[in-house]
Specification:
It is a single chain. This protein is an alpha+beta fold. Helix content is about 50%, strand content about 15%. It is built from 23 helices and 23 strands. Strand 8 and strand 9 form a beta hairpin.
Amino acid sequence: MEAWWRDLRAALRRLRKSPGFVLATVVSLGLGIGANTAVFSLLDALMFRPLPVRDPQRLVRLGSLDSRGLIHAVPAPMFDWLRQDGLFEGVCGVSTPLTTVEVNDAPLPMSGLALTGGCYEMLGVRPALGRLFTRADDVPTGPPVVVLGYDFWQRQYGGDPKVLGQSLRLEGVPFTIIGVTEPRFQGFLLGFPPSVSFPIAQQVSPLRASPPTPQTFYWGSAFARLKAGVTAEEAQTQLRVDWRRQLDAALPPQIQGQERTEELNAPLVVTSGSTGLDYSMRNRFRRPLGALLAISVLVLLLSCINVANLLLARGLERRREIAVRRALGAGRWQIVRELVAESAVLVVAAIGGGLLLAAAGNRVLLTVLGRTYSGFVLTASADSRVWLFTAACGLAALLLFGVLPARQTTAAHLTEALKAGSRSSLPAHTRMRRILICGQVALTLVLVVAAGFLLETFRRLRGESLGFQTEQVLNVQLVPLPGGYAQGFSPVPYYRQLLDRMQSLPGVEAASLSHFSPVFSISYDEEIRSTLSPDAPGIHAATEEVSDGFLATLRIPLLQGRDFQRTDSPQTQKTAIISESLAKRLFPGGAALGRHISVGAQNDTRDLEIIGIAADARLFDPRTRDFSFVYMDSWQHPDHMMWGNLQLRYRGDSQALSAAVRRELRNAGHEYPLHLRTIAAQRDNALLQERLLANLSAAFGGLALTLAGVGLFGLLNLLVTSRRSEIAIRMALGAGRGDVSGMIVRETLALVGGGMLLGLPLSFAAVRVLSNLLYGEATLPMVPLALSIALLSSVAALATVIPVRRATSVDPMVALRCE
């Protein structure tokens, strides 16, 4: 340890004398480490970070697993049965409703958290103020109580401790504030910390009567804490014995037919619950972040090659010094240790800079996500996994650019090094330098081509037609005011009057209603069959309820038939408009108009008459190639009209229209807008992962080109300078400057060409991997490929010509005399 400490102090003294070298090395390596740390810390926060509760590794989530891989919520009676089982220390039911909270007499949508009593005790969450509710509070007939989230308490009440005992209205019902959760608890739902939490039995529905009726039945995501020594597999095996019988007894009687059969036949699963709940964020960003992490690893490797170049040049300058020290008795291991100590100091400095860069980069990325998803809050601070990952990056960098160059520097023959000058005696064509040149060119080509592919894919997706016009269409997502959907609310006359009001607003050209938000909602597929072939395999297609005028508002062409009518009612024959692609699949040899289709699984279907054929449109996913779609008449399904969306095609300013829409909804007195966004903005949000991936990969590609340009210039300058004696001899024997320059440029371009030949198949493989991971198709971007080849060739030629001109401008006799 004393020897290592001595080497460290000596390394610091030597590096202090070379500030330019230190700055270039730390910046180059810090960029690579920072890029990797930023991407991994975001991936860690989204995918791996456990809930900040007691022993999260012992938490499990259990429920029935459907065909889409989703774990179903559990009906209320099941929780009593699970608590009686001896497998768990505690059981917790969780629901994450969007809750309307009245703050300063204004209704605001907030993330809510409904929990069964005893959840906080099981999780080990402590109050920052007051107390948290218990099982004694979780009764429908008890006094309504609410616990505030710490951030909400600070934001709305300024951290006032006198908040205890005050009343807060949730969905129009007064709840008594009994406590505040500790700051570290951010709820169960990833990225959406709750503003308020309350007993699940006291959850108030907008469909409530007045006064509100007790919540006698609920659904909740089931979490449990395993007892010591019990594994998730053992719990699953024991629960599976009686699961179906208990579930059958707990399901409400209105769930019948195929729906009940599917629920009972779904297999039980007990899996880790340490990371809480997530509905879409992980599935949406898992693969893009994985691809981005792979790209950033290549950037780090390129940074290591760049730093290795700098260390080789530095080692060449110190070669005579090292040879003298070895001649005086210093061991090779001792010198290697000193050089590695220098590299370790550089790595530590680069890690510090990289962590600062990663923190700044993550703040920018999370700000973008927060603007896209209302209420999204996530911290990507460094934890043990991030620290280990960053340390692993630093160790890999030390091995790549520290140990190998140190070995190369100390491998010279002592006699040659002592007889030679400081630079010219190092052989010009070593395997190490050839590998560095080829590797740097190949990696740069891979990064630039990958960035070009992602940019081109994003440009194509953004420019590709969705089958409808997204510009000048405002989408209004509606949520009920407290009690807005209470008994006595009649949706059909209300929405007919609302559409009339909206169509009369200044600048509005068309208005419609739908149960989903175009290019924002997640599609729900059902089985579609022609009644002419009831036994044929069903075709899976998206189905949604829309009102008359929906196709006209989005300007989706109606190819055949007619639109829905506002006078339609549930008592008339149910009708549908289907997409052109679905019509061809269902009726390949005949007309579809007037035919009947069944929607839903067998034994639980709806019979619909086809009254129209609409052009294909991408109404959910802008990347989809499946255009099968069934439009159902909203006026014939009034139960699905609530929690809907308005679409308004307008002229002029969207801000003025938004203000008018808010005013009309306030006057109507039943709903308020959760979001008012143009469909063009929703389309951009749907392509958020592609945009972030393309922009970040482009930044990494530009960084790779910069590093490659600087690295190639430095390394080729070293190669040319090391051949100064050879150049002088050739010129003394009659070779002209053009001859010497051409010879070296050709040799250099041959090395660069070899790197490009190596990079071409690697680039194609990278594009294939990215495509299979993200998009399902692969096209090598020829324009970025050609530009990157031309740019790298130009950089290599320039990096060779400048030192060659400098070397050939010296008088040959002067150069030979110096040697």
